[in-house]
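look at this record:
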Amino acid sequence: MDGRKRGKGATTLTDVAELAGVSLATASKAINGVSQVRAETRQKVLDAAAALSFTPNPFAKALNSATTGTIGMLTQDLDNRFVLPVLLGAEDAFGAGSTSVLLADARSDSIRENHQLNMLLAKRVDGLLVVGRTTNPRPSITAGLSIPVVYVYAPSEDPEDLSFTPDNHDAGRQAVEHLLSRGRRRIAFINGDPSYSAARDRVAGAAERMHEEGLSLVGGTGLFGPWGERWGRRCTESLVESGERFDALLCGSDQLARGALDQLRESKLAVPDDVAVMGFDNWDLLAEEARPPLTSVEMNLQELGRSAAQELVRAIGGQTARGVRLGPVRVVPRESTGAWAH
């Protein structure tokens, strides 16, 4: 056989093996870099492949290699606005190499999650990134799996797993620190649904930082309600009507803070001159368009996803780790909290 392709259709590995004068199994091992093939035999196969313009089938190659170069990402809620930046950060990290990503959405359904998990395993993914819809701990799915699993946003309930979640306790501390730096001392915390660990962790961090200054939150730590502008307005109205003086409203989300801003305006209280207002999550659509623009705590979710993805790649390479890693957060100052206190 000469160096040209015989017959019709694409060149096959059989053609390469025939031209190189080796078995099909040897040709496969040589193409895929398996170490048992002698150097001169490997070169003979590679020369034959080049002469025939042979392109290896990536799926066939995967079957002959220890890894497939494919990562599975299993999310609970693809439409959740907190999930998207995590996914973008993870995909950015995976995209730095030659890794392909398969995304599956369980839609907060345990039966569907199990189905999607089996689908990803059937695709022979090298590792799995499990992305939660809240920061509440979730059941582990690691047991019985032969591939590494890393959890992000919602940590696993199993301390033996590796999880990445934003540091909501520190977010509460940093928020109060920021307000204290603006000269505010009488701070109330309007919070969301107490079933969310983020709500509980943020107010705990805020109360802790206040206590270090010999202060306590106006109205206490239990101003919980639904996430949304309506509760932000109602709680702010109640605080104003109570007659208890406050000079800052720390709100458990940017949506709550937008409601607080509206109610303060109706109550003829100026922001930030009379009352500073601050939120969490730094949702730019809300924070930047607020009147005045809203100071908020950025949870760095894209970086969280990137860190989790990088650790999953290390785990696939044999560097295992465990425990919960808390992602750093930061305050993004805007006009709603005013200038630095002198």
In short: The CA atoms of residues 249 and 277 lie 5 Å apart.
